[in-house]
């Protein structure tokens, strides 16, 4: 058999009654990824796992302390606080952000005058990223003398310092997250563009209205992308760090009301020279995120539609 | 099979990394601080935090130094405060720390006691400390060894806005005799006269200066000599009660405004935006606050000071220190000497890193200072001070975050001052014990 | 912005397959929609506008004068900010551009290859590898950074762009691998089948069939890599020690130190300057975003 034929046979995934494996081609395509995994990712990941069982202050050599770090987690009140804050944040901000992103993507996908302008306007906030300017900007809106209070003042309501009040600080961060819905919106837009036009043409011929088209065509065909955004936004929200760091100056304040999990982990590791415990905390977070992701993948079998 | 090789290489890498971490932790320096200065090319890395103005000044000093020592190249690495400490911790962990390290009082013990800093007592051949005030030098010692040289000194002060006081026809208090009640009354008058537009006092409780002074006025200290938390709960509760009263009586802004400003930059504070008549600051911050405010500001001594036993103290604004693993400790010490002891460097740095702790340099630069800097220097010179407080113990580098959190809890009335005092002491002590 | 609107309309209407609805009179619907969208756009943009206005204000007025009405113009903030640090700001822009460009190429090539394997090929250990890939983005960077720094410093890569670029060349950004997997899985299988019947092997199917069809995903990857790398602060802060090597986010932070006064005017001015390239990248990129399968006309 010639090399060419061999190569062609690699590609016959679905031709036989049983799928043939494409190991060679697959590993070839995955070569850069394998190299990255083994050379760059694996070492530090495993090292962080090992450090999770040590007392490591970054300056002196790590010392094994068995399950001491796990014990500490059980009685660490600030950790429990951080878990509460993070779960609340994930459960509220992810659905809100995704709904906003999908809704606007649908709206902006259609032949609308000024489309490019709106798309850019809605995306612009996401460009600011973790810029230091964010902290200052956010205060201009939600601060005691910010825009929101000025507006409320006109209607006769006395506002408060939304960012610095422990009762409302987390809500402003949720708003901040929703405000940067640009990223998932762009992914939705790209996904919408992949839906073949013929489906809609056929549906229109059949007299289906917009809502039916949305339910029967858009949702199922967009479901891989919705699923992607859901999985990634959950992972992302669990790891939320920068915005809380920038807005609270790294403290998670006021009164730990915005103490995100990773912010606490960072404080332990870098501010308190407690990298062993921080590593253990990181692996607990990994377990939590992995559990959520696994549930997501399991549930996906029921609602995500692939064309393969 | 692929999976097998993968697993093996992963393991070897992990072991390698862990070994590197261990190696990094006990790596040894290549030279001795008492060696002769090399004539071969030497590269020093010098790191500091600050903003653009400091970066420019420091680079000028570096240029002067390398002109005098052409075989030495100095690479300046500047960062802002938060990034600086992340970066420093990472480089120290990897045995890749810069040679000359700008150090803060909060972190000095944490690095020195764990062996990351060079005992500068071994570098006296190149680094003189003769012109330093003994009390100031003392602040750079940990366990009797001189790990750091103070760059400059600062003292806690009340900044009063004299324009605002004049506007509301309130006389400037006599700061040699005033009490905390006087401050409260004056503040109340301002709040009343302005109709809420301006508050009397900008609340504090977010830095260690306020707590230290409060404790010392009560005859206590924040830390005992052994490095344990020593402030009595009742004293600390009194501190928070005072701040809570200010907020509740409208003398200070509502808690959310106070907390917001405490977390914001200096320019957004009540003193800088002329919305508070009195505020606590380090004296060296006066020029910056005055520039942002645009009005006339004056430094006052803190209330409640007793001439016989002053609670005020000189805080080292920052330090110079040298990495224990520097390959060129002698040359590094020489650069620190240049920074700390020469008039050339002093002329450029002025009071950017505090009023110079070196008395000769201080005298030399005083005539060259701006009005604001001079006022700050005069305040420092005239102040009666007690012995400096113990350096922040190892493990307590996070004290300001803990303090801030409890101040917030008190202001928002989630904890009573007593509860906060007990919780604060317990948490801080636990950090010290764990380190 | 008018230029934008005019350019965009033909592109998007050409690709719009859906017939307009007829129940509500079209002009009214359009007015309501535009009012709503404009209002939303204004809210979204307010902080950005405030930032631009602040970049034109004298330093000590930024926090004293509220709102976005500009009463005096301080253009000097731009020249001051440009020259405030060790090197002119253009130097940092150039450094960032180098890193960003290399990262984009790295992500596009390596992630699309990995994604093709995960989406279209059947191989031993696929599920395990896929889970591993996802798992690698679940650990927060703050515990990875120290061992990783040790690794890179052993390799002598600290203070070069390599620690920022090489990982992207090796598909370590699982976000994009997963994104592309989802896009490829959304493409009809019949397309590969047809190519295969014509005798194409995997490299050819990948290059000739899949890649052109996932243009929106590639555009998304490009835009996101650009923005995220451009804004990424932590790893650039840690790995770039020499100010000569500083990138935009690291340089921008050098303006702000919480312990002393900040040149806010310069900081905002340079923030605006550094926002321009990402915004331009988005404007250009979004035109490819909307050229999906729907517009290329493949059925």
From TrEMBL, chain A:
GO cellular component, one term: plasma membrane
Family annotation (InterPro entries): ABC_transporter_permease, MetI-like, MetI-like_sf
Keyword annotations from UniProtKB, A to Z: Cell membrane, Membrane, Transmembrane, Transmembrane helix, Transport
Domain ABC transmembrane type-1, residue spans: 83-296
Segments crossing the lipid bilayer: 27-53, 82-108, 120-138, 169-192, 219-238, 278-299
Main location: membrane
Its membrane topology: Multi-pass membrane protein
Localization annotation: Cell membrane
Gene Ontology terms: biological process: transmembrane transport
Family: Belongs to the binding-protein-dependent transport system permease family.
Protein name (database record): ABC transporter permease
Automatic annotation (TrEMBL), chain B:
Keyword annotations of the record: Signal
Keyword Signal attributed: yes
InterPro entries named in the record: Bact_solute-bd_prot1, SBP, TAT_signal
Signal peptide: 1-24
Superkingdom of origin organism: Bacteria
The name this protein goes by in its record: Sugar ABC transporter substrate-binding protein
Organism: Actinoplanes auranticolor
Biological classification of the source: Bacteria, Bacillati, Actinomycetota, Actinomycetes, Micromonosporales
UniProtKB/TrEMBL annotation, chain C:
Gene3D superfamilies linked to this entry: MetI-like (1.10.3720.10)
Entry's Gene Ontology BP terms: transmembrane transport
Phylogenetic classification of the source organism: Bacteria, Bacillati, Actinomycetota, Actinomycetes, Micromonosporales
The entry's keywords: Cell membrane, Membrane, Transmembrane, Transmembrane helix, Transport
Annotated protein name in UniProt: Sugar ABC transporter permease
Record field: transmembrane: 37-56, 92-116, 128-152, 164-184, 205-230, 264-284
Topology within the bilayer: Multi-pass membrane protein
Residues in ABC transmembrane type-1 domain copies: 93-285
Cell compartments where the protein resides: Cell membrane
Similarity section: Belongs to the binding-protein-dependent transport system permease family.
Domain of life: Bacteria
Gene Ontology CC terms: plasma membrane
InterPro entries from the UniProt entry: MetI-like, MetI-like_sf
């Amino acid at each position: 058999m010639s090399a060419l034929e061999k190569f062609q046979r690699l590609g016959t995934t679905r031709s036989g009654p049983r799928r043939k494996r494409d190991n060679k081609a697959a590993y070839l395509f995955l070569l850069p990824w394998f190299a990255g995994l083994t050379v760059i990712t694996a070492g530090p990941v495993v090292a962080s796992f090992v450090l999770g069982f040590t007392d490591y202050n970054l300056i002196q050599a790590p010392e094994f302390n068995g399950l001491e770090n796990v014990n500490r987690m059980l009685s660490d009140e600030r950790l429990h606080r951080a878990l509460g804050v993070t779960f609340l944040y994930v459960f509220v901000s992810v659905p809100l952000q995704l709904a906003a992103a999908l809704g606007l993507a649908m709206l902006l996908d259609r032949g609308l005058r000024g489309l490019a302008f709106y798309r850019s306007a809605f995306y612009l906030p996401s460009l600011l990223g973790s810029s230091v300017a964010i902290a200052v900007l956010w205060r201009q809106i939600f601060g005691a003398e910010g825009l929101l209070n000025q507006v409320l003042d006109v209607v006769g309501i006395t506002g408060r310092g939304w960012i610095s009040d422990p009762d409302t600080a987390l809500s402003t961060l949720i708003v901040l997250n929703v405000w940067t819905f640009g990223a998932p919106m762009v992914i939705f837009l790209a996904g919408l563009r992949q839906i073949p036009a013929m489906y809609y043409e056929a549906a229109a011929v059949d007299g289906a209205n917009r809502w039916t088209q949305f339910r029967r065509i858009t949702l199922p065909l967009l479901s891989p992308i919705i699923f992607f955004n859901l999985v990634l936004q959950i992972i992302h929200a669990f790891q939320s760090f920068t915005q809380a760091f920038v807005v609270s100056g790294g403290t998670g304040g006021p009164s730990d009301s915005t103490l995100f999990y990773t912010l606490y982990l960072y404080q332990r590791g870098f501010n308190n020279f407690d990298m062993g415990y921080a590593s253990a905390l990181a692996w607990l977070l990994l377990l939590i995120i992995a559990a959520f992701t696994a549930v997501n993948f399991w549930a996906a079998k029921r609602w995500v539609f692939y064309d393969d | 099979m692929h999976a097998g090789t993968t697993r093996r290489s992963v393991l070897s890498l992990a072991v390698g990394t862990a070994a590197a971490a261990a190696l990094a932790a006990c790596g040894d320096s290549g030279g001795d601080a008492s060696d002769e200065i090399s004539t071969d090319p030497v590269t020093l890395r010098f790191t500091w935090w600050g903003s653009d103005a400091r970066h420019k000044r420091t680079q000028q000093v570096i240029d002067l130094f390398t002109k005098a020592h052409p075989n030495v190249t100095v690479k300046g690495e500047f960062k802002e405060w938060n990034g600086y400490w992340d970066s420093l911790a990472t480089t120290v962990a990897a045995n890749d720390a810069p040679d000359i390290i700008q150090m803060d009082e909060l972190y000095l013990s944490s690095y020195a006691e764990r062996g990351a800093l060079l005992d500068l007592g071994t570098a006296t051949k190149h680094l003189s400390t003769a012109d330093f005030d003994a009390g100031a030098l003392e602040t750079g010692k940990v366990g009797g060894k001189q790990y750091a040289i103070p760059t400059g000194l600062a003292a806690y002060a009340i900044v009063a806005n004299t324009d605002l006081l004049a506007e509301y026809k309130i006389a400037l208090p006599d700061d040699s005799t005033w009490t905390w009640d006087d401050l409260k009354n004056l503040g109340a008058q301002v709040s009343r006269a302005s109709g809420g537009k301006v508050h009397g006092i900008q609340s504090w409780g977010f830095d260690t200066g306020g707590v230290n002074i409060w404790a010392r006025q009560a005859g206590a200290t924040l830390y005992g000599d052994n490095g344990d938390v020593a402030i009595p709960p009742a004293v600390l509760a009194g501190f928070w009660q005072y701040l809570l009263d200010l907020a509740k009586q409208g003398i200070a802004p509502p808690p959310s405004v106070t907390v917001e400003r405490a977390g914001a930059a200096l320019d957004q504070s009540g003193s800088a935006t002329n919305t508070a008549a009195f505020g606590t600051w380090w004296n060296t911050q006066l020029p910056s606050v005055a520039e942002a405010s645009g009005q006339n500001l004056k430094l006052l001594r803190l209330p409640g000071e007793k001439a016989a036993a002053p609670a005020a103290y000189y805080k080292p604004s920052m330090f110079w220190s040298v990495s224990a693993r520097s390959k060129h400790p002698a040359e590094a010490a020489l650069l620190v000497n240049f920074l700390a002891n020469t008039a050339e460097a002093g002329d450029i740095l002025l009071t950017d890193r505090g009023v110079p702790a070196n008395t000769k340099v201080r005298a030399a630069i005083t005539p060259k200072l701006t009005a604001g800097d001079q006022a700050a220097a005069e305040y420092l010179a005239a102040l009666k001070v007690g012995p400096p407080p113990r350096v922040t113990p190892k493990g307590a580098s996070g004290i300001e975050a803990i303090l801030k959190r409890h101040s917030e809890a008190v202001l928002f009335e989630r904890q009573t001052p007593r509860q906060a005092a007990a919780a604060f002491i317990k948490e801080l002590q636990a950090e010290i014990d764990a380190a | 912005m008018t230029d934008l609107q005019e350019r965009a309309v033909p592109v998007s209407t050409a690709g719009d397959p859906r017939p307009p609805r007829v129940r509500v009179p079209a002009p009214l619907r359009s007015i309501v929609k535009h009012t709503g969208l404009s209002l939303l756009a204004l809210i979204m943009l307010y902080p950005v506008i405030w930032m631009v206005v602040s970049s034109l204000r004298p330093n000590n007025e930024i926090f004293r004068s509220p709102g976005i009405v500009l009463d005096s113009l301080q253009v000097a903030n731009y020249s001051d900010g440009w020259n405030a640090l060790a090197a002119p700001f253009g130097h940092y822009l150039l450094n960032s551009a180098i890193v960003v460009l290399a990262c984009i190429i790295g992500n596009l090539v390596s992630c699309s290859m990995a994604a093709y394997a995960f989406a279209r090929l059947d191989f031993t250990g696929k599920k395990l590898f896929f889970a591993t890939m996802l798992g690698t983005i679940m650990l927060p960077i703050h515990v990875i950074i120290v061992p990783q720094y040790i690794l890179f410093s052993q390799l002598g890569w600290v203070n070069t762009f390599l620690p920022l670029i090489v990982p992207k060349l090796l598909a370590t950004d699982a976000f994009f691998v997963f994104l592309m997997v989802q896009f490829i899985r959304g493409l009809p299988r019949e397309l590969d089948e047809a190519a295969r019947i014509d005798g194409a092997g995997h490299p050819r199917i990948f290059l000739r069939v899949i890649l052109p069809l996932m243009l929106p995903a590639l555009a998304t990857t490009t835009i996101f890599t650009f923005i995220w790398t451009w804004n990424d602060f932590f790893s650039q802060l840690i790995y770039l020690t020499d100010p000569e090597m500083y990138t935009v986010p690291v340089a921008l932070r050098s303006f702000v130190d919480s312990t002393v006064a900040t040149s806010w005017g310069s900081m905002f001015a340079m923030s605006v300057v550094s926002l321009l390239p990402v915004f331009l990248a988005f404007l250009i990129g979004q035109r490819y975003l909307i050229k999906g399968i729907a517009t290329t006309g493949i059925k």
